[in-house]
Write a structure and sequence with these properties.
The chain is 35% helix and 12% strand. It is built from 14 helices and nine strands. Helix 2 links the parallel strand 1 and strand 2.
């Protein structure tokens, strides 16, 4: 082994944590337009920043394109809707029939270019499958899987929404009470076979479940006919949505329930699929109805600081990261008094990856919007909203004097450790 190679390997090991957390964001549904719609004084509704902007100015590691809305459109292709970023009829394919269920496959070349920007920035981009229609037969389930493969992943089609760009994977987010959960087993098994046969590795397969264990559609269940009953190891990530059930597992409404249900999911994964990363999904905004949440779901920074939030969450077996529902609100939520450049997810991400609860704590403001309104609401012109949301989204590290001193110490200690260890490697 050469000296250079030995040094490189050692430095690489010492400079990288043994566990890398991930930060997921749901982008495309543009939920913030519900709070900031068009009006006589603001003719343009708020639109979240472009995918390229999000990938180059935020710490998100995984972007979930939200959403694939139908398994089968008018011509039996996968139907997509990304709100103002790509929607029917603005982005319809020339000559394509009008939708009969509200959605169709779309021509989203602009988003495809942004996906390339995300890939260049080292970010993963996956398709979140949240269908309104059911899978009625095994044949249809296989057909839907092949559609997803051909339209978004490694296959070919005349109607690929993002052109030749290949997404990094999918998320199964079937919250439509489909009465046939076993058909999603057929769907995912087919898709997994296509992935495995592609010669490409590193595919992401995420499953999104409610906080209540077990999940209605993904399971696991006693009938042993769900994805988590039969194919738990197929998932690279499982996102636990801590929203919409405040009495059961809303953090502010039932803190004990929040942790007990999170622990139940962790216990299951530890036994059934220990390599699957458990990701905790939190609302990114304090007004619950706009993030598909409920009063009591939002975790205020004060709670994070005082209740040892991250210490308890990170202690849950298999914990691998955090997800925000959704990006459009997260980029507006600037919770630090006197510092409107850092987002809600930026603060949580800094604490998670920095020095934990001992890090510098920003004073939480009651005005969590960069353009006014406080926790009871916000108002501004459309121009101001867009300017605030598309400005540079700076993510500042949450550190302390102790953290800085620790970094300086390693600059001195690291060479002392490297030299003798490298010598041992060379003699070996």
């Amino acid at each position: 082994m050469s000296f250079l190679l030995a040094t490189t390997l050692l430095l690489s090991y010492l400079s990288h944590p043994t566990h890398a957390y991930t930060l997921h964001g749901y982008w495309g549904a543009n939920l913030a337009q519900n709070q900031y719609p068009s009006s006589p004084t603001s003719p343009s509704a708020y639109t979240e920043p472009s995918l390229a902007t999000i990938c180059t100015s935020t710490p998100y590691t995984h972007i979930h394109l939200s959403y694939m809305k139908l398994h089968f459109d008018v011509l039996n292709n996968s139907a997509l809707d990304l709100d103002a970023h790509c929607r029917w009829p603005t982005n319809k394919w020339a000559g394509y029939p009008d939708p009969v269920k509200g959605f169709n496959v779309l021509d989203c070349g602009n988003v495809g270019l942004d996906v390339e920007v995300c890939h260049a920035a080292g970010k993963k981009v996956i398709l979140s499958i949240s269908p309104m229609d059911y899978l009625l037969t095994a044949t249809r389930a296989e057909a839907s899987a092949r559609n997803v493969w051909n339209l978004f992943l490694g296959g070919t089609s005349s109607y690929r929404p993002f052109g030749n760009v290949v997404l990094d994977g999918v998320e199964v987010r079937a919250w439509n009470n489909d009465p046939n959960p076993e058909l999603y087993v057929v769907f995912l098994r087919t898709l997994r076979e296509l992935m495995d046969g592609s010669g490409r590795s590193g595919w992401v397969i995420s499953g999104a479940v409610s906080c209540i264990y077990p999940d209605y559609l993904l399971g696991p269940n006693t009938l042993n006919n769900t994805l988590l009953s039969l194919l738990p190891t197929a998932f690279t990530h499982l996102t636990i949505s801590m929203l919409s059930n405040p009495a059961t597992c809303g953090y502010s409404s039932n803190t004990a329930g929040f942790y007990s249900h999170l622990t139940a999911w962790a216990t299951f994964l530890t036994a059934a699929s220990p390599n699957t990363s458990l990701v905790v999904t939190l609302p990114s905004w304090y007004t619950p109805e706009w993030v598909n949440g409920a009063t009591g779901d939002y975790v205020r920074l004060q709670s994070v600081y005082e209740a040892g939030f991250w210490e308890r969450v990170k202690a849950v077996g298999g914990f691998g990261g955090l997800a925000m529902q959704d990006v459009s609100f997260d980029v507006l939520n600037r919770p630090c008094s006197g510092n409107d450049s850092i987002t809600y997810s930026g603060v949580l991400w800094g604490l998670l990856n920095g020095v934990g609860g001992n890090g510098t704590r920003c004073a939480e403001t009651t005005n969590v919007s960069p353009f006014g309104g406080g926790v009871s609401g916000a108002s501004s012109t459309a121009a101001t909203r867009k300017a605030a949301a598309t400005s540079t989204l700076k993510v500042e590290p949450i550190t302390s004097d102790g953290g800085e001193a620790l970094g300086q110490m390693w600059q001195v200690v690291l060479p002392i450790l490297v030299v003798p260890i490298v010598g041992l490697l060379l003699r070996g």
